[in-house]
What we know:
Helix content is 23%, strand content 41%. By secondary structure, it is α+β, with helices and mostly antiparallel strands.
Amino acid sequence: MINNGIPKDETGFCFECRKKIHYKLVKQKYKHRIKEKEYEFDTLTAVCEECGGEVGLPGLLDYNAQLIDDQYHKMEHSN
């Protein structure tokens, strides 16, 4: 398991395959504009090992929100 109880390399439901599948967690870049300034953040995405489609996992959205918040504050305080 990784932080906040998000399982790593477990099974989940793929909406593309319409069945329970194995997924892997991959790092993904996410661009977002905050206060008129463009930022790029590292996030995690669950990907179906069969079709490559994105898999929704409970807790992953909250985990990524915390990652983005932490990275944003580090960027702003390093200037």
